[in-house]
Each structure stands twice: as C-alpha cells, then as structure tokens.
C-alpha cells in the first residue's frame, strides 16, 4: 500500500536508522565473544546501508521506492529498526561509565545529532493510519538525543552479550524483511554492494572476523572472506602440496594437445576420477634471473595457486576445484576436477568455439542464445573477475578461450551458457607477487592485450577489467572479437592489425558509438562494456599503480549487469 507522503518519510527514517547503527557500532568489545558480535553487527550495518544504496534512499531519492513492493510495510520495518536502537540506549545506561584515558574524569559530550529532519509533519495531514507511529517517532528522537552523547562513554560488557545478540538477531530479521519487500533485481544489487563493502579490506584479521561472524547466516560471504584472508597470508604459512602428481598416476586422453585435455586420475588417496588438465609451457615464462631460481619461483607460484584453487573457492568465482599439478620437463599441467553435473566423455566447449562455430549454438537454441541467457553469462563472468580482483589475484588470461561450458552428464549435446567456468589460471598471480613476469601466449597475437601494457611491464588489475570488457562485447553481439574488429589472419594464421590501441578504437566506433551494442543489449549493458574498455587508458606509470576505484567498478559493471540478469 502506498500513501501520500510516505516516500520522503521512509528516507528520513532510514537516515535515522543509519545514525543508530553508527552509534551502536562504537561500543567497545571486551573479549572474543563480544568481538564476534560486533562483527555480526557490522555485517547487518553493511546490509542495511547497501539496501539504501540499491533503492536510492541513502541519496534521498524517493523514486527508489519503486523497487519496493509496499512502501508502508517498508516504513514499518524501518521504524522497528530505529526503535531497537532506542531500546538498546536504555539498556546501555544500566552499565557503568567508561573513564577517559589519562584524566580519570568522565567524558561529557554534547548531543551530536546530525541535521536530520526526522518528520515532515505537513506531509502527514492525510496520513491518519500512521498517527500512532508519529508519536513513537517523537519518543525515539527524544530517547536518541538524550543518549547519543553517552553511548560512546560506555563499554559493552560480556554479561550483556545475550541481549546484544538479541538485538543483532532482530536487525538480521529486519534486513531480511526489507529484502523480501524489494524486487529481485534490487535485492541482488544490494547483496553485491554489501559483499564488496565488507571484503574491501586487506586486513587478514578483520577478514577472519567477517568470515567467522557470517559463517551461519551468510555462508558464501564467509567463504569469500576466508579465501581472501588466506590469500593475504605469506606463502610460508600455506600447507603447500609437497610433490606434483606423477606421470604414472595420469592416463591422458591426448598427450600431444598443446592446451587442455581430459585425463583419468589414478590416485591411492581418492577414487579414480576424470579430470581436466590445462598445460603451460615452461618456456612461456621470461627469465630475468637465473634459470634455476626462475624454475623455483614458477613451482612456488604454481603450488600456491593449486592450494588456493583447492581450498573451496567461493561459487561466484566460477572456478574448477584443483586436484593438483603435474610437472613435466617441457610443460606444467594444472589438474582440475570436473563439475559433478558434467559429462567426462568429451571436452568442454569454450566461448571462443561457440562464437566461431554457430552450428553448436544453433543445435541448442535454434539460433543465437536468448537475451536472458547472455545476460546471465555476462553477469557470472563479471562476478568471477570482480571476485578474483577483490581477493587480490590477477587472472592475466581473461578471454573467450578461457570461458568453458561443460556438456551435461545426462545429455552430452546440451550446454548451458549461463553456467560458465573461468579457466586459464596458468598465468595468474597475486597482486603483490612482483618477482618476475610471464610472457602471455603469443603477445603479438593477443587481441585481449591492454593498449598500455608494454612488453615485460607489470600487469595491472585494469588489464583484467579491460579484457573482461572485450568478452562482454562479444557476448552482447554474439560475434567473435576478430569479426567485430575486422581483424584478418595472414597465411601463417597470425592476426593482422595495426595495434592494440587501434583495435580498441575500431571496436568503440563500430560497436559502441554506432549504438549497435545499445540496440542489442540496452544502455546499462553498453555502459558496463564502455567502462571496462576505458579502464586504465592513457595513464602514466605512477597512475597505473594507484588502486582501482573498486566501488565504481561494482556500480558501473556488476550492478548494471545484475539489474538485467535476473
């Protein structure tokens, strides 16, 4: 039910709720249990804030309520949240003052209410149905004003944690109710924003707290926080696989293939299983140091990558579980378990293959994949790249060739393009690992290469985002990059084009500026692709080293794609 005057009232009460969260989060912890409770409170605070961002209420955008089903029901929930903070203010006053450090004097501070006009009483003339709530709001304001200055002077003690936990449970329930009253698209955007906000830190201890605090209520967030915390630890703290999988434990379908093949893994510790092997030539690494030292660094990086990909990565990363690695004299193979739903009899198809051979897609969809399937595919890949960058890992191989689709176990001819897997991790490294750089496969022929990425220079996060934009462009128009860019091949199969910079300019002109992509996929999708293709362009070296404005990436890419992938 929508009543006159409710939208601005909702935004005003939301602002008061944000103030209440800030006050309660200032409580000091006294012990491990209290610290975890404050971690749970932080999660609910971020969820509440992200919901406000997704609906526009945090910007006093009344139109944001079009993304909610019942304005008055939303108002009731927000009122219950604010009332909880008023109740906790009363409870806190029962526990002693905290002395200020050094003086022994009690801290006296003035009321610090920000200039929030809680109610616009003129707008309530025709709102007889919420007269009772108006009186309650006045009481809330009175209680909050008298307790704000005191809240920061008290210490939350262990004896109170049951009551504090009750507050958190109520806030959790209220956030769930707000989500239930939001459209699926708005809820998905809010979830993405809160996850990013909570994980946008490089403090392993805080990430560990987030992981512990969210283990029961938000298991995927818990996994991602634990994964990032683990990744931030020094390599010496990892329990790395001591030895590669020996050749006699692998029955390889095609030992000659240069890139990827299926195999049978024969291990004493696990049942016989079908696996996928991705090969990397040892010669693909540059050797700025002695060959022995370089070889040791290669194996060290491979071992850490195996450990990370075997340690239950979050589902949103769209990665395969790593079973180990095989180190041959000429190449190194990363060994991946197949998805449980996949057929182990035939190789997966890559996005590059689907774009180049329309017969495969024609047999499945009767033409190009439907719009909703392409949106879900684009969103899944953007989420995967965003997740990797958020945990400080550079993929370095984002391209259509490394996006795989596995045939279904029940029907080997069936492929679900909305369920991709991102591979090509043989070139990956963590952001802080600058010991040496690898040569990408065929740099001169790498169409996904960032125009400002000079040979031998350090790889940047922006380069992965740029490559993602090229993949999204192909998905939107369902044509290969060579076709879109007018790239031809010479007699030896090498791509012929003026430069990576000219290729980018041609793609922008032909696909973006012409309105072609917008016509096919809409303005939001086009804006996401444009953002990626403009990432890191024209920056000086010292500017490239600056952190990416990850918030803008999430809002321009993830949120835009989320809004259309539901």
From TrEMBL:
InterPro entries: HeLo_dom, HeLo_sf, Kinase-like_dom_sf
Pfam families for this protein: HeLo (PF14479)
Record-annotated Prion-inhibition and propagation HeLo domain positions: 10-209
Gene3D superfamilies tied to this protein: Prion-inhibition and propagation, HeLo domain, Transferase(Phosphotransferase) domain 1
Domain of life: Eukaryota
PANTHER family hit by this protein: HELO DOMAIN-CONTAINING PROTEIN-RELATED, PRION-INHIBITION AND PROPAGATION HELO DOMAIN-CONTAINING PROTEIN
This protein's name: Prion-inhibition and propagation HeLo domain-containing protein
